[in-house]
Amino acid sequence: MTPLRDDYILRAIEKVAAMLRAALGLKQSCEYSSALETLERAEELLLGERAAVIAAVDAATASSLIGDAEALALYAKLFAERAEIQRRSGDTDSARSSESRALELALEAERRGLGADDDLRTLIEILRLREADGRGAQSS
After folding, report:
1. CATH number at residue 88
2. Structural domains in the chain (count)
3. Contact at 8 Å (CB) between 12 and 51?
4. pLDDT tens per residue, range 54-75
5. Residue 105 is part of which domain span?
6. What's the first-to-final CA gap in the chain, in angstroms?
7. Predicted TM-score (pTM) of this structure
8. Residue 84 CA from chain centroid, whole number
9. By C-alpha distance, which of 63, 131, 126, 66 is closest to 97?
10. 112 near 72, Cβ under 8 Å?
11. What confidence tens digit (pLDDT) does each residue in 111-135 have?
């Protein structure tokens, strides 16, 4: 990558991280619709015009299209936060789907070289536990 492209990606990641923090605040205030809208805008900023395509493909293809492991990890965090908001608003089916996508993306980011990232490893552990809890609840 060129230094100019690296700088652009870094600035976009910083803006998206700020939007994620704003969504967290809205979630804490139980403003779920606004929080989800903020996450959608963050996703659009992070992925640009490729957002719809990236949302429709598997995690490995999404990883290739995104290209940057940090951006991929942030995309996974957006999905994880979306899942939490969906769960709090009572949409458990969508929450499970978003958690599954978040886990796939986080694992792909780990494979792409962010395995030493403590936040990413913690996210993966949490998502795996939720996935296991969900399967256990479904089989009961």
Report:
1. 1.25.40
2. 1
3. no
4. 999 999 999 999 988 889 999 9
5. 3-139
6. 50
7. 0.85
8. 11
9. 131
10. yes
11. 988 656 788 999 999 999 988 887 5
